[in-house]
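User: I'm curious whether this sequence folds into something compact or stays loose and floppy. Could you predict its structure so I can see for myself?
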Amino acid sequence: MMKIITDLKNVKIKQDTVVTIGNFDGVHKGHQKIIKDTILIAKNKKMKSVLFTFTNHPVNFFEKNKLKNIITKEEKYEIINKMGIDIIVSVPFNEYIINLNPQEYIQEILVDKLHAKQVVIGHDFRFGQNRGGNARFLENIGKTYGFDVKIMNPICLKNTRISSTYIRNLIQTGDVHKVKQVLGRDYEIKGIVVHGKKIGRDLGFPTINLKYDSNILVPKTGVYHTKVNIDGKIYDGATNVGYSPTVKQNEFTVETHILEYSGNLYKKEVYINFTRRIRDEIKFDTIQDLKKQMNMDIKNIISY
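Assistant: Here's the prediction. I'll summarize afterward.
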């Protein structure tokens, strides 16, 4: 069972370790490669595998709320746990971390706290005060501190390097199909079903209104074919992301009409998996035009 440590003061690792470091937002295929190699090396060397990460995105420390997360902290832990990491050290990115120069970072965190004998990092890894340390610096100085360094090459999709920035751009343009290719899974938003304005029900297309983590990145406004996970059972859904302009709804919502489902989901946690974007959000001239389009959207989903 993976151990989670959330305070550097509570890090008391005595065994030799193989450590990987990063924000790992999204745990995309590039991250997965680094994590898998970390686990494999640790097993071969009979050491513990450690993933060192942050509870907040470093960018947001300097510019509050600049970046939304691709997944929640809990989802990140769950994915990494399933991969087989022994220990996650997930701590706040704060003044202490910022003010460590590269040598202090190595000594105080990698050596003293994490007991690292091998470090696995991406080619673009930067660390320490003013991001003064990089992968090559760590590799060159590692022997002095008693650990080896493995630098991983980037993972590419059709000559494009997979990165969290690239994935954010895909989500923000609604290209959720390509997001799946780089994550290795559907882009997912989970939340609690709350009461909406019941407009969908009045139109003959009842919807669930999702209350989700406000720090999570939501796909571009529009209508999506989704897969809705309710207690492990999967249903097709038509999800509208946006403002429902035809019915003059000014509030931004994520609303889903679940095909072939009629139960009461109020206060229940559900998972919305985005499989493909069907169309833009449109303001129709009449409610009848809206209903006609919604029927077309559903036929699109059924025939896919």
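Summary: Residues 229 and 271 are 5 Å apart (CA to CA). The mean pLDDT is 95.
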